[in-house]
Amino acid sequence: MTTYATTLRAIDRVDWSERDGVTRIHAELVVGDGSDHLRGHFPGRPVYPGVGVLESVTQALTAARGRPMWLRDLRSARFQAPVPGGDTLRLDIDARPVSPGWQVAARATRADGSLTATIKASFDDRADPGGSSQVAPPPPPTGAAGFPEILAVLPHRHPFLLVDRVRAVQAGRRIWAEKAVTATEPCYRDADADPYPAPLMLESLGQAAALLWLAQNGPLGGDAVMLAAVRGYRVSGHARPGDVLHHVVQLDQVKAGTAFASGATWSAGRCIATVETLIAVRRPGSVLHSAMETSSRGEDR
Amino acid sequence: MTMPDQRMEELREIVAEVLELEPGEVTDTGDFADDYEADSLRAIEILARLDKKYHVEIPQSELPNLRNLKSVYDAVSRYAGWRD
Description:
The complex is a heterodimer of chains A (301) and B (84). Chain A contains four helices and 16 strands. Chain A is of the alpha+beta class and 301 residues long. Chain A has one domain (2-300): Thiol Ester Dehydrase, Chain A, CATH 3.10.129. The longest helix of chain A has 20 residues, at 198-217. By secondary structure, chain B is mainly α. Helices cover 58% and strands 0% of the residues of chain B. In chain B, helix 1 (3-19) packs across helix 3 (40-54) and helix 1 (3-19) crosses helix 4. Chain B starts with a helix and ends with a helix. The mean pLDDT of chain B is 94.
């Protein structure tokens, strides 16, 4: 297997083979080994983020193609079970050429063999395809929240707390939130000039959605809000250090303890990403702990 | 097509989209969990889409009954007041 490392380390080893036009990629990551992000996701309770799996798939595909690959369309992501620190993430990816780029189907499992995520997405090698010129809807003059209020609601911490300011929130309906992209973030450690990684843009949008849901529902207490699924996340542009991500998220439905949201991200006067559906579930914090116990028992076997 | 047939086809499309299958792959009695590997979140997604599409509120307690397309049809019939 090839050893692999990047600034935002999402795979340790990757290997691939080709047959009948399909590239089969296998990659592994020991979670917690070399990842800055786990310190903030979550303090004292490390869990590999769902969007981390998306980054792992991106890096594995980049390794197999021999050049940077960029997420264009995340048709579907399902996050079935958390991967706690110390566990091993295993990825099996089928990549097929399409025009332009690659269509990918990925399955991620933990050391105990249980399924943790499935991803269907397309990628291509255009770092910045441009985005569409479009003005973000202006926020209404209501209920803003600063960083202290965000800290009080979200359990995420540095460097994985990816919302800086809430410009406005209409409880139960819509939120306007911002995140400044800066060169001090771990993904820019090696002064890389690349666009801000799409999985982090998606996480930032997801945290805005969580703030919206919790603005209606009250703070978490011991609960955890977990990203359970994503449908139709399309990336049409990118941001770089110095840019601000402006998210606008609508809460479309809440059913059976499950929130359905949609939204878009703007930067420098362009719409750079849209999402049809983000699905989040609210679970007692004990669910994460018991997931870790189950997972560590699996390791012992 | 009769009205029930049309509604059945409409539901087949909704269910297929949630399960990430082609409508032709979803049979009337195929079990969502056993035959299509659907987890509990998929059932909640189906429920949410039914509420939105048919302007009904199917209670969460119906979730265990939504096992195949036919049972989805029956549930929506009850809450939307469809008569065959």
